[in-house]
Specification:
The chain has 10 helices and 2 strands; from the N terminus they run αααααααααββα. The protein is an all-alpha fold and about 270 residues long. About 5% of the residues have low confidence.
Length: about 270
Amino acid sequence: MAPVADLERATAAALFARIGFPLPPGFTASLCASLPSALDADPPVGVSRPPGTDRTALADTDRAALAVFALNCWNDADDRRSPPDLPSTASTLATAHILEALTTVARSREIDRCRADFAVRALVETQEPDGHWADRRVASPYPPTAAATMALARAIESEFCAEALLAVSRSIAWLLAAQRPDGAWGVWHPTTEETACVVHALCTCVNPRAERVVAAALRRAHHFLAGSYDAGETDAVRTPLWHYEDLGSPLRLERLVTLTALLLSGAPVP
């Protein structure tokens, strides 16, 4: 993970925190020490950026929200950080990550409770009728749908909301219905990144031991990921999805999301 851009570092840390991935204590401490730089407007001079990205493609709000979420998850102190305000033009991904970070802040603070409620409403109101979300930064609906579903599920754990619960149920149903016969997901054709994003959402928001349909979907997804993980960068299963100057892919993050999804979907389920 070194050298690595602040966006990559914050995204990776949030992923580890979100799924409760066991990290060595020294690694976690080192990662926490490096995350505050992701809260700045610009990365430090000399820090490399994810392959395929350019300066204008990096969302400062998104990066800061991810960093705050990870820091708060790993910090037992009462003085937890608050994420940035939700911009009026926030994308689905940014809204989801800000809401996710707000779930780690004490709900007794009126301002944070209001901000969380606003983010929940923003996601509920932008959900498409069939249950998915879109985001202008990515060609596929699966990454934003996965992010919004996981954020709303966390919000429900903090404070029950019938509209959020319905939105999560609709998105899970849409994701399950969209799985391809080979176990993958993909807007154009099967890809590892889109499949991995859905696996993260299903494993985070649903208990596979209680939902046999989900358990079966995860087994099929695991089979696909296991067979395609070693595919080359030019293979169709690794088609770039993110809008930069052209369609691109943050390669290290794509590999990390896919690898952790392979581990999650491979967990024994009766």
